[in-house]
Amino acid sequence: MGKVRSLLIKSIIPVAIVIVSIWGIGAYGSQSQPQEGDQKHADVIMIDMLKAFGKLERPGVEFLHDNHTKALEKTKKDCAACHLTEKDRLSLKFLRLKDDSKKQVMELYHSRCIECHKQIASAGEKAGPVECGGCHKEKPGVISIRQPMGFDKSLHFRHTKAHENKCETCHHEYDEKTKKLFHAKEKEGSCRYCHKEVTEENRISDRLASHIACIDCHRKTIAAGKKAGPFQCSGCHDPEQQAMIEKVKDVPRIKRNQPDAVLIKTSKDPIQPEARMNFTPFDHKAHEGYMDTCRVCHHEDLNACNKCHTLTGTKESKGVTLDRSMHQANAVESCKGCHDLKKADVKCAGCHSFIDRTIKEEHACLKCHIKPLQQTTEPIPKSEEPLMAKALLDSRSPVTAPFSEQMLKDIPEKVVIKALAQQYEPAEFPHRKIAQTLLKNIGDNKLAGNFHPDQMTICQGCHHNSPVSIKPPKCQSCHNKPFNENNPLAPGLLGAYHQQCMGCHKAMGMEKPVGCMECHKEKK
Amino acid sequence: MSLTRRRFLGWIGAAGASTVLGRNADASSTVHFKGYPDSFAILHDISLCVGCRACETACNKVNELPPPDLPFKDLTVLNQKRRTTAKTFTVVNRFENEKNPKQPIFVKKQCNHCLEPACASACFVKAFKKTPEGAVSYDHSVCVGCRYCMVACPFEIPAYEYDNAFSPRVMKCTMCHPRLLEGKLPGCVEACPKEAISFGKRREILNIARERIKKHPERYIDHIYGETEMGGTSWMYITGAPFSQLGMREDLGITPAPELTSGALGAVPIVVGLWPVLLTGIYAISQRKEKVSAEEQALAVAEAVEKSEAAAKQKLTGELEKARKDAQKDKDSAIKQAVKKALDEAASVKQEASDV
């Protein structure tokens, strides 16, 4: 008997281990995120406001707003079925104006949601759940594809046109004394400058502000029988529908009395004759055209940069000095950062992807810090600054010159590369065509034109590290044997050719050549 | 001699003490091996590799390996992930580029030639050796075929000639050590048309890698794979995509394999050399102890026997004496009684005679 028992125990243990491990793996796997193929929605609202009263007893409820508006339409009900009206506008809360207590909010949802679901179900229609687990799900049931929404120039223009340039329809300021909103003409800025991510004191969050204002207006306009924007969630937040929003091609300039040209200075004070650095003229009008919104550069407000970004930095600028604010690499708000990002354009990347961005070239400074047209001995009054800026900007000619007749003759049409002649037929390199294409790619790009007005700069893309010349050194002059100890960063000839040619093709998004044979013909 | 519990524990204790002592001696060294000062290294710039397999072709040629099933120009082999085998010392694998699906990423794989190789530390016949040139070389003549090196390698590189029944070898990239000694470049390095693999002194190679990352921070991740992995390797990698997406382990840490195993493996010579002596010694001591005690026991027994014999003899003599005395006494009293009886009888006869 004892023997049988020990045998039984011995056989049960491994089985138990296997079962426990399988269960463990299963439990681990089940924690994964929703799988692909699950429903994607732009209208998911998480009902979890009870969090404000302490820890949630059950998981929050994923509420699909658009599904509910559609269902209400069928029963000829409108927003008022769920939203109360406050000061002539719909409250965003469900059947209440504020959250009094945990019990009140919870009971409101439970009674009214379930009541409506039951009603619809009794009418034989497809209705929402009535049991706890139907709404309070442990695992997310849908994937939210909600994208943030914002105004670009085009959408702003369509709104100003529809509202006949009445800025006060949307733009307002808060008067501390009268505690009322008022419109300050030509002080308008982005909603986000005041309405931040979360509600602060008497300023509601940008989410609340935009939903109250936008949806209310759209709803009323539609009710008046006019064309208006969407009031369903997906209309603004679904990426597909966002792409369908009508775009105005040539958006007229926003009228807010902004300058055409400014001088970027270190302070508000008038320019003194002893100022050391050349002031940078900034073509404000042109840049308005390049950007989608004012917010790209004016990230916090519509004041001059130097209000926060002083020479030494301020608390408001988070210590970012004027120098950094203008030259910060890869920051779209900064001049140099944004210009650097422009170099990633496929038209520019062929050359620029090879150029070491860490090198600071002296002559490049003067491209922005333009030398004054005339020296003065008197301080320059502020009123003259725009004119001075305009004059400085006009003194430039931001155009890359085309190749002259003589140059076209001097530029070899073809270059035959025989470095791999033992294995392949010599490779024919369409040298002149490439030079012309690169120059053509610049076109009338003012940024490129300003920084390389000389057409020969194009040659420097390949013929680098030697002075501009119509007869630059051959590639072999520097790139000969690989792993040269004197210049370890320079590849050998084989590496130099392949890295330069293929690297440029890759950076410019060219799909050809594929494989070796498109450049190297098979040896006969 | 029977093995008692106490004796067995005694042996284990002694053996344990010897191991601990041995480890202490090793750990007292504070020198960190940073590799041979002028050793060579190779940098694989993954962002430059185009997956042409020219390195594989050259490797096959210079190492005189058998031709592959499919020709090297057939790029369909890249459709599956491969590993190094006894017939291919290096393989190029293709990985998805999550940032730009149109431009897949190619990674060359071969022996990384660790500065402190795990294979060498696992090999008990010292078939593997880190040469001053940087290559980890293999000596077939001493190999016993245990394949511990294959288990030890964190990069899963060494392969075994399973189809060679009589003299199977462990096969892996040699960093073209013979060619290095001739002043030539490794085969793959020489063949790479993109110079996606650079060759040089290890410190210069590290400088090149750092310089490239510094110049083009948008193109590279700020990490040189192999600079510190497993204590550093002689093959290093830089890339724009995370190494974990390129089938390269990022969990290896920076401790060289021998350092992890030196405690245990450092005890091996002690165990192999000292233990027999120690155990024989313990055995001899215990044997001697037994012999001595046996002798002592015999002596004691003899003594005891002698003693008891003497006692018995004495007792016997005493008793005999007593018996004799008793007998004498009996005899005397009997005589006395007989004499008395005879005297009494004679007196009564005399009485009777007088009466009559």
Explain what the structure shows:
The complex is a heterodimer of chains A (524) and B (356). Chain A is mainly α and 524 residues long. Chain A has 19 helices and 12 strands. In chain A, helix 12 (346-352) runs antiparallel to helix 19 (493-507). The model of chain A is unreliable at 26-37 (pLDDT under 50). In chain B, the strands form 4 sheets. Chain B has a 3-stranded mixed beta sheet, with helices on one face. Chain B has a two-stranded antiparallel sheet with strand order 2-3. The model of chain B is unreliable at 22-29 (pLDDT under 50). Chain A binds chain B through residues 330, 353, 356-358, 482-483, 485, 488-489, 491-492, 494-496, 498-499, 502, 506, 516, and chain B through 48, 50, 52, 103, 185, 192-195, 198-200, 204, 207-208, 211-212, 214-216, 218-219.
Order of helices and strands of chain B: HEHEEHEEHEEHHEHEH
Share of helical residues of chain B: 40-55%
Count of alpha/pi helices of chain A: 19
- Rounded mean pLDDT of chain A is 89
Mean pLDDT across residues of chain B? 87
Radius of gyration of chain B: 46 Å
The main sheet of chain B orders its strands as: 8-1-9
Multimeric status of the protein = heterodimer
The shape of chain B, in one word, is rod-shaped
Low-confidence stretches of chain A: 26-37
- Please outline the major beta sheet of chain B: 3 strands, mixed
Shape summary of chain A: extended
Q: Based on DSSP secondary structure assignment, what is the total number of beta strands of chain A?
A: 12
Helix/strand-derived category of chain A reads mainly alpha
| Number of strand elements of chain B | 9
